Amino acid sequence: MEDDRIIELYWERKEEAIEETSQKYGRYCKSIALRILENMECCEECVNDTWFNAWNAIPPQRPTTLRIFLGRITRNLALNRVRDLSCEKRGGGQAVLVLDELTDCIPVSPSPEKVLEDKEITASIERWLETLSKEKRVAFIRRYWYCDNLADVASFMGWSESKTNSLIQRLRINLKHHLLKEGITL
User: Fold this and answer.
1) 88-119, pLDDT tens digit by residue?
2) Would you say 94 and 149 are in contact if contact means Cβ atoms under 8 Å apart?
3) 138, 107 in Cβ contact below 8 A?
4) Tens digits of per-residue pLDDT, 32-78?
5) What is the b/e burial string over 134-157, where b = at least 16 CB atoms within 10 angstroms of the residue's CB?
6) How would residue 84 be classed by pLDDT, with cut points 50, 70 and 90?
7) What is the mean pLDDT of residues 163-186?
8) Cβ atoms of 142 and 35 closer than 8 Å
């Protein structure tokens, strides 16, 4: 079923919308959640929460790209769950490691007052990503959006782990310099 029709089902408040969404985007959302959570049971709960959040968000929102909309919901829910779990027990999986790596580059701003600053940071990162070659952009996004471990990024890119690690470190340093140059205080 086409995305426009699925969105219309949400607007019409028909439960068929969830069934169609699950059928079309279930595997995609599960892959995002599983990379972050590393646990199938938590992953399935996260994906079910994605359908619930989509049901509550549409309407009033009308996503322009349903896949991206659902992926963002899934990723945010999974990251929130990782943070909750890491508060309960220190340690953590790949997502905690990935988030820790970026703390030197991107300031953490949990307060509602900093929402505007977060939007500026997001726009700055998007501008920075546009300056990268496709290859570097893909590696960075696989590491920090999909939370792939370095071995998986290396395998996906066809690189050695040492090359991947070195590139990811250089990209983080480059991002930090870019943010400072744009006046974003760290």
Assistant:
1) 444 455 665 666 666 666 655 555 555 667 77
2) yes
3) no
4) 999 888 889 999 999 999 999 999 999 999 999 999 999 999 999 99
5) eebeebbebbbebbbbbebbbeeb
6) confident
7) 90
8) no
The span from the CA of 150 to the CA of 165, in Å, is 7
- The answer to whether the beta carbons of residues 54 and 35 sit under 8 Å apart is no
Task: Report how far Cα 4 is from the mean position of its chain's Cα atoms.
Answer: 23
pTM of the model: 0.65
Q: Reduce the secondary structure of the chain to three states and give it as a string.
A: CCHHHHHHHHHCCCCHHHHHHHHHHHHHHHHHHHHHHCCHHHHHHHHHHHHHHHHHHCCCCCCCCHHHHHHHHHHHHHHHHHHHHHHHCCCCCHHHHHHHHHCCCCCCCCCHHHHHHHHHHHHHHHHHHHHCCHHHHHHHHHHHCCCCCHHHHHHHHCCCHHHHHHHHHHHHHHHHHHHHHCCCCC
Side chain identity at 137, as an amino acid letter?
R
Alpha carbon distance 69, 103 (integer Å)? 25
Q: Please, what sign has the CA dihedral across residues 68, 70, 76, 79?
A: negative
